[in-house]
């Protein structure tokens, strides 16, 4: 009776397997990083689009428009909402209308479904999760030390500490008006966006920032790719 010989894997075969596993791991990490970066840029664009749409409405109607926000990222109730409407409508009506408006920015992670989109790889910083910004930054550059935020003459110095986050969090409502006469925002505010995974900030992940200066008509947008996935951790205006 002949016995079949049993041989193990050769060194070359083991090295090939290890190489394939390494390539797949790198590809997976790169895909996750690209997904987070793309999500941060996408959320920034969506928020900016809502602000600019509100501004266009004020210009077209010649009447003041109010932007209203409410909720905390990932909270089941209330969901994070951003909408706009006639300033005379009041924030309650604007937020109610935002639930079914294509111009509204909204999210409900793990609940709500239906009318609300889910963003799994990027989150808006609200007051209850304000530590997300510092956590995500990791070893990336601190934006307050970069132009124009470190230049007294720019009007940006101290903005991130002296002026409010538009998303107040929980059930608090944050509002800002746009003048129908000159399309200018009535106050300074900012919105921060960070990369998230499983509902938590990604250390060294991508970050984004929108800033509007009081009595100004421009929305400034900044982006940092982070350092986690080979990014340079540098801020750039986009």
Short synopsis of the structure:
The protein is an alpha+beta fold and 238 residues long. It has one domain (11-237).
Task: Report on the architecture of this protein.
Helices cover 29% and strands 21% of the residues. By secondary structure, the chain is an alpha+beta fold. It has one domain (11-237). The strands form 2 sheets. Strands 4, 6, 7, 8, 9 and 10 form a 6-stranded antiparallel β-sheet that branches. It has a 4-stranded antiparallel β-sheet with strand order 3-2-1-5, sandwiched between helices. A hairpin with a 6-residue loop joins β8 and β9 (219-224). The longest helix is centred in the first third of the chain and has 51 residues, at 11-61. The chain is elongated.
Keywords, please?
single chain; 238 residues; alpha+beta; six-stranded antiparallel beta sheet; four-stranded antiparallel beta sheet; 10 strands; elongated
Average residue pLDDT: 83
The ordered H/E elements are HEEHEEHHEEEEEE
DSSP E strands, number: 10
Number of helices: 4
Low-confidence stretches: 107-116
Q: Cα distance, first to last residue? A: 76 Å
- Helical fraction equals 25-40%
Class computed from helices, strands and strand pairing = alpha+beta
User: Which quaternary structure do these chains form?
Assistant: single chain
Largest sheet: 6 strands, antiparallel
Domain module count:
1
* Shape designation: elongated
Radius of gyration: 23 Å
Strand content: 15-25%
Q: How would the blueprint of this fold be written?
A:
Blueprint: H1 11-61, E1 65-70, E2 80-86, H2 91-98, E3 105-107, E4 122-124, H3 131-137, H4 159-162, E5 173-178, E6 189-197, E7 200-201, E8 207-212, E9 219-224, E10 236-237
Antiparallel strand pairs: 1-2, 1-5, 2-3, 4-6, 6-7, 6-8, 8-9, 9-10
């Amino acid at each position: 009776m002949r016995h079949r010989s049993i041989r193990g894997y050769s060194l070359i075969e083991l090295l090939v397997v290890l190489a394939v596993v390494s390539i797949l791991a790198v590809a997976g990490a790169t895909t996750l990083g690209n997904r987070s970066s793309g999500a941060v840029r996408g959320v920034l664009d969506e928020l900016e689009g809502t602000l600019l749409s509100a501004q266009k409405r004020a210009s077209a109607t010649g009447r003041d428009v109010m932007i209203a926000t409410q909720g905390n990222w990932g909270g089941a109730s209330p969901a994070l909402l951003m909408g706009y409407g006639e300033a005379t409508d009041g924030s309650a009506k604007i937020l109610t209308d935002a639930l079914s408006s294509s111009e509204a920015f909204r999210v409900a992670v793990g609940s709500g479904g239906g009318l609300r989109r889910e963003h799994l790889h990027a989150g808006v910083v609200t007051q209850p999760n304000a530590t997300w910004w510092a956590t995500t930054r990791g070893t990336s550059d601190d934006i307050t030390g970069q132009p124009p935020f470190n230049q007294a003459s720019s009007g940006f110095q101290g903005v991130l500490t002296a002026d409010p986050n538009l998303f107040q969090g929980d059930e608090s409502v944050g509002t800002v008006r746009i003048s129908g006469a000159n399309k200018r925002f009535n106050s300074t505010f900012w919105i921060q966006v960070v990369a998230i995974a499983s509902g938590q900030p990604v250390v060294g992940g991508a970050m984004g920032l929108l800033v509007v200066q009081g009595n100004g008509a421009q929305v400034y947008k900044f982006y940092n790719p982070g350092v986690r996935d080979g990014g340079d951790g540098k801020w750039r205006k986009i």
